[in-house]
Each structure stands twice: as C-alpha cells, then as structure tokens.
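Page header: ASSEMBLY MODEL / two components / 203 residues total.
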Amino acid sequence: MQFKYPLSEIRHDKIPLLDVRITNKDNGIAINYRAMLDSGAFANIFHSEIASVLGIDLSKIKETQPFGGIKEGKQMTGKPYVIELMVMEKGKSYKFDSVVIFSDEISNTGIALLGRIGFFDRFDEVCFNYKNNKFYLQKD
Amino acid sequence: MTIMQKLIKKFGGKWIALKPNTESVVASGGNAQKVYKEAQKKGVKIPTLFKVPTKYVPYIGQF
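Prediction written out in full:
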C-alpha cells in the first residue's frame, strides 16, 4: 500500500507537509493536524495545544522528554503521550499507535514534526522525490 | 506566491482550521481549541488544524 503526496512549495524550496489524523483512544476525540516529515527528528513533536484539543491533561504526565536542535546549548522539553495516528489518501488509510512529544517550545516559525520513532519506523519505505515534487509512504 | 506563503501572509502566528484535503480556511484564531470548535460549528466534522508559522525561515533541524 502506497500513499503519495505532493511537496508543498514555499519560496524556492519544497517541504513535505502531511495532514495526519490524530485520535485520543482514551476518549475518541479526533482531529486532523498538519505536520512536516523530518528524517532528522528523532520523534514526533507536536504543539502542546493539540493535547488540549484532544482532551489530554499534560500536567498529569510526570515524564519529561528533552530534545534539542543543532544550536548548541538550546535544549527543549515536552511530554510524551501515546496516541493513534492515521495517514490517508484517496480512500486508503493506515493507522498505528505512536508516541508523540507535546511541547510548548516550538518556535513561532516552526512546524510540528513527524520523526523517525513513531512515524518513519511505521513504514517500510519513506521516499522523497524532490525533483518531481512528491513524496510517498510505503507500507507492505 | 505559493499557498504556504499566502497562509503565512494572512494567518502567520495563528491557528487555522481547514476543510480536510483542501486549502480552504474555515476558522482562525489564537486558540487551537476555539478554532477547532468554530470549524465544527460551521459543519466540518473533523477539521485540519495547522499552526501557521509567523514567517518562512529555511529549516535546518532547529526549532
């Protein structure tokens, strides 16, 4: 099963934005959320406000997950939570449980990320075809 | 101007709710939950939420 999407153009670049469905399995609340695939991100990093929409009380989660970018000395934190993610395209869908780190430290110029653990590792192949303006997810 | 650039120009820094699989904005604002509920009131059962960046900064793995 293959899910194929166009890259989103911005200025002189093209980025892999994807609308995923997130469901809180504890209460059934579901939303679609636009995030960017990032093979450089170790995990999924979502805005903490999304947790509120899903009815997740982050103050009750004791575990804190630190993470950083390439800038030295800049470390951020977030709260991990298991949700259900689903990708969809033209009547096809694939859903799986995934750990997401909800953080209120994503900058105003940043975009939520779909990373290696909890997204890339759920597919057999993730391919970026920059020249032809598309990317695809393969699940055998 | 690309779709993303138009969104940044009009909604930069805000949450927007889109009709699924479209670029049609049905609600916007500073609070994700309010935007989500407003979109549902307008008939979109499961809207797509997106926090629009305030500006486009080429991304190299840093928030």
